[in-house]
From TrEMBL:
PANTHER family: AIG2-LIKE PROTEIN D (PTHR31544:SF2). InterPro entries: AIG2-like, AIG2-like_dom, GGCT-like_sf. Belongs to the gamma-glutamylcyclotransferase family. Residues 24-80 form the Gamma-glutamylcyclotransferase AIG2-like domain. Gene3D superfamilies: Gamma-glutamyl cyclotransferase-like. Coiled coil: none annotated. This is AIG2-like protein. Pfam families: GGACT (PF06094).
Length: 91
């Protein structure tokens, strides 16, 4: 007797990727999500978030990887793809 299991498809919001400034990856499988978890390592925590899509203004439930150390002084500021940090004053 064969058992069928429904595959879970996930959406993942990626900010600041090499592809574009903001990207939503649709239909990520459980094994692919595990690969992303391993890639992001312990420095990031996968978090459920809601994003607004620019094309349609629809809201979407998705995962995002958030920097784990909220007290990291390097977290605040602007980062460019050359790898340079510039400090932005916190009000």
């Amino acid at each position: 007797m064969a058992s069928a299991t429904a595959a879970t498809a996930h959406n993942v919001f990626v900010y600041g990727s090499l592809l574009a400034d903001e990207v939503v990856l649709f239909g990520i499988t459980d094994p692919e999500l595990h690969i992303l978890d391993e890639f992001e390592d312990v420095e990031y925590q996968r978090t459920a978030v809601e994003v607004s899509l620019l094309e349609s203004c629809n809201k979407l439930q998705t995962h995002a990887y958030v920097w784990s150390d909220a007290n990291d002084p390097n977290l605040y500021g602007d980062w460019d793809f050359e790898g340079e940090w510039t400090e932005t004053p916190v009000a």
